[in-house]
Amino acid sequence: MIYSVLTSKQQIDRLLRPGASYFNLNPFEVLQIDPEATDDELKKRFRALSILVHPDKNQDDPDRAQRAFEAVDKAYKNLLDPEQKKRAIDVIQAGREYVEHNMKEKKKQLKKDGKPQFVEEDDPEMFRQAVYKQTMKLFAELELKRKEREAKDMHERKRAREEEIETAEKAKREREWQKNFEETRDGRVDSWRSFQAGKGKAKKEKKPRSFLKPPKVKMEQRE
């Protein structure tokens, strides 16, 4: 694939254009290099592009240059990882196969309808654009799934941590209760003994109950 030569500003604009967070998921697209490129070609391309967008070379716009440089650096590191590189190549291949399959289906329908079997993707440039769009779509879908898994894992870790803290706090409360129970046991026993002793003493000193006698009624004498 032939890429146009861009200036430093144009490269920064390309790497930070609207939707770049998804466009830049394809490391080959970020570095503007073919998946078939050798390791030496990859290294040379990285050096050339990183110099173009480096903040030191773009002191009039260092913040954007730094973000662009980080995108280039991330893409290069991904392609240095054999597993990451293979995954990217697989996505690109899947995008190509999808477009080719659609072309075949379209031509089958045209043949059935008795029409010329020509589709717009027969044009090399249109085919390239179709593959590019489909590849970007696949990269975006994979990224969304990755974020969903990451959010789910984070939620699970948070829940596990909360349960761990709750278990630890419960165990702490139980230990403190047991400790308090042991420390106050003697006091409770003494209080109970004192209570029982006081009860017994009160029983011994209890006086017999006295009953009030009703007043005598005087009989009146009749004259």
UniProtKB/TrEMBL annotation:
Biased segments, Basic residues type: 200-210
Major subcellular location class: nucleus
Top-level taxon in the UniProt lineage: Eukaryota
One cellular-component annotation, GO: nucleus
CDD domains, A to Z: DnaJ (cd06257)
The entry's keywords: Acetylation, Chaperone, Nucleus, Phosphoprotein
Subcellular location as annotated: Nucleus
Domain J, chain residue ranges per copy: 26-93
Annotated Basic and acidic residues bias: 145-191
Signal peptide interval: none
InterPro entries: DnaJ_domain (IPR001623), DNAJC8 (IPR042858), J_dom_sf (IPR036869)
Disordered as annotated region, ranges: 145-223
Cross-referenced Pfam families: DnaJ (PF00226)
PANTHER family named in the record: DNAJ HOMOLOG SUBFAMILY C MEMBER 8, DNAJ HOMOLOG SUBFAMILY C MEMBER 8/LIPOPOLYSACCHARIDE SPECIFIC RESPONSE-7-RELATED
Assembly mode: Interacts with SRPK1. Interacts with HSP70 (HSPA1A or HSPA1B).
Function: Suppresses polyglutamine (polyQ) aggregation of ATXN3 in neuronal cells.
Protein's recorded name: DnaJ homolog subfamily C member 8
Biological source species: Esox lucius (Northern pike)
Gene: DNAJC8
